[in-house]
UniProtKB/TrEMBL annotation:
Ranges for domain Protein YjdM C-terminal: 44-113
Protein name, as recorded: Zinc ribbon domain-containing protein YjdM
Domain Protein YjdM N-terminal: 3-32
Pfam families in UniProt: YjdM, Zn_Ribbon_YjdM
Organism: Sulfurovum zhangzhouensis
Superkingdom of source: Bacteria
Length: 113
């Protein structure tokens, strides 16, 4: 029997296969077999679960406060040409917001436009 990989999120050994995915029953993390083999890089999904890629255009879905600014980022603001980065605190989107400047955003506050 083939040894399945442990979950990359929680380290559980009880993973199982479902088609082209591995699934962890303990933390509900899903990842592709290609990702487990190291062929895929960073996977970032928006608030609706759509996979984001470098250069995509996204829309902000919640008013966001910006430290050091009296303004903020309003709902519906379109951000063009995002860049995906490995963020250890969840800020995986590097972008330039009109009227604010360069900033990193969390993926759960944007949707693919």
């Amino acid at each position: 029997m083939e040894q399945l990989p442990n979950c990359p999120m929680c380290g559980s050994q009880y993973t199982y296969e479902d088609g082209e995915l591995y699934i962890c029953p303990e933390c509900a993390h899903e990842w592709s077999k290609n990702e487990a083999a190291g062929e895929e890089g960073l996977i970032v999904k928006d608030a609706n679960g759509n996979i984001l890629q470098d250069g995509d255009t996204v829309t902000v879905i919640k008013d966001l406060k910006v430290k050091g600014s009296s303004d903020g980022i309003k709902v519906g603001t379109k951000i063009k040409g995002i860049r995906l980065v490995e963020g250890n605190d969840g800020h995986n989107i590097d972008c330039k917001v009109p009227g604010v400047g360069a900033i990193k955003l969390k993926q759960e506050f944007v949707k693919k436009a």
